[in-house]
Design brief:
Number of strands: 9
Distance between the termini: 30 Å
Largest sheet: 8 strands, parallel, barrel
Order of helices and strands: HEHEEHHEHEHHEHEHEHEHHHHH
Structural class: alpha/beta
Radius of gyration: 20 Å
Number of helices: 15
Strand content: 5-15%
């Protein structure tokens, strides 16, 4: 396994705040499915992914009442369970599996809005969806209001909400005025929220933002003011990763998340250090957050939020149940997931169940047949 920082994984090989420029948005070799926008060649499994021909009338998805979802989970004494946006990992097969195991809301990988709007190839590489998916949120990185609104308009028929990434700490993103750079420019965040909300195609679709904490000595005050401003401009909810862009392995500042929660009316999703169901429960209790988002924890165990599996004191979520490993492989094969993507998922899911020598052997595998044979030999799954 590559070293990772906390629960920030997947994107740019280090964080769940971004889409990963190093992964090359235009490289079709990284794609699980083509984008499902009109006017493109589509050759997909109808069961797994939406597809539309150029003459097809797009039927708008039924609106999802996210506020009602947040409120209902709170009344039930719990919290909304969210799977983080992770490049290469937040694909259809993985989203289908986590949704079966207690996740309420899933995100796409982060998509660079400018590239998405201008390039068919980028759209094919960056986005896929399934007919039954929902609630599904598309996350974009953008540096101006026009490119964000344009990308949101394109993707709107195929998702239930759109999200602006204001948290990627990677140097390439900061240098391009994307991601966490935006928290130093709250007026630009406000402009982008308003532009997206003013787009005709998004009339019934919520706009949200995902941020890191503001940097500097006025961290707490500036973060609260940023969130208040986003709320005033129409952000329907705000996800907060409890670190600044400079902080990677430190304990998240859950006190700041609580401060924001106490200062705004919109729902708050807390993100950071969620590795098991008890972590999520504790963070929800500490912060009073309406939702909890997990990244690396979900990669290690897609059933992390499954009460039926991890209840009654069983909180050892780092060990992914073998039936979930098998379930993911079958779903990945059904959806046509690339072997490399499936393999990366399985490296995470089996990390704590294999010896070092077995991990080294498993990491070197390159074929689907070899992966399945290894899992059968080591764990006795795939008996049929």
């Amino acid at each position: 396994m590559m070293d990772r920082c906390d629960d920030d994984v997947g994107n740019c090989n280090s964080c769940n705040d971004c889409g990963g420029k190093s992964c090359n948005h235009n490289d079709a070799s990284n794609v699980q499915r083509s984008v499902h926008l009109p006017g493109q060649d589509n050759t997909f499994d109808d069961d797994c992914c939406d597809h539309h021909d150029s003459n097809e009338l797009i039927v708008e998805r039924e609106p999802v009442d996210f506020l009602n979802l947040f409120q209902r989970r709170k009344k039930e004494g719990g919290f909304t369970r969210v799977c983080a946006p992770m490049v290469r990992y937040s694909k259809v097969a993985f989203r289908n599996v986590v949704r079966r195991h207690g996740v309420d809301v899933v995100f796409t990988p982060m998509i660079v809005a400018d590239t998405f709007s201008k390039s068919d190839r980028a759209r094919q590489a960056d986005f896929s969806s399934a007919p039954s998916e929902g609630p599904l949120v598309a996350q974009f990185a953008a540096s101006n209001a026009h490119e964000f609104a344009s990308a949101c308009a394109l993707i709107s028929p195929f998702v239930d909400a759109v999200d602006l990434n204001c948290g990627c700490p990677q140097k390439w993103a900061m240098g391009d005025c994307l991601g966490a750079h935006l928290v130093t420019r709250p007026e630009l965040i406000a402009d982008m929220i308003k532009a997206a909300r003013g787009t005709r195609e998004l009339t019934n679709k919520p706009v949200s933002i995902k941020i890191r904490l503001c940097p500097g000595k006025n961290r707490d005050k500036d973060t609260v003011e940023l969130c208040r401003r986003a709320e005033k401009c129409g952000a329907e909810w705000i996800t907060i990763h409890g670190r600044t862009y400079k902080e990677r392995k430190s304990t998240p500042h859950f006190d700041v998340i609580k401060l924001v929660k106490d200062s705004v009316q919109v729902p708050i999703i807390a993100n950071g250090n969620v590795y098991c169901l008890k972590d999520a429960q504790d963070i929800a209790s500490w912060t009073n957050a309406d939702g909890i988002m997990s990244a690396r924890g979900m990669l290690q165990n897609p059933a992390l939020f499954d009460d039926a599996i991890f209840s009654n004191g069983n909180n050892d979520c780092k060990y992914c149940p073998l039936e979930v490993v098998e379930e993911y492989v079958k779903e990945a094969l059904r959806c046509g997931t690339l072997t490399t993507i499936m393999h990366h998922h399985l490296i995470y899911m089996t990390e704590h169940q294999l010896s070092r020598s077995d991990r080294n052997e498993f990491n070197r595998l390159t074929s689907t047949a070899g992966i399945i044979e290894f899992l059968h030999d080591r764990f006795g799954i795939f008996q049929e």
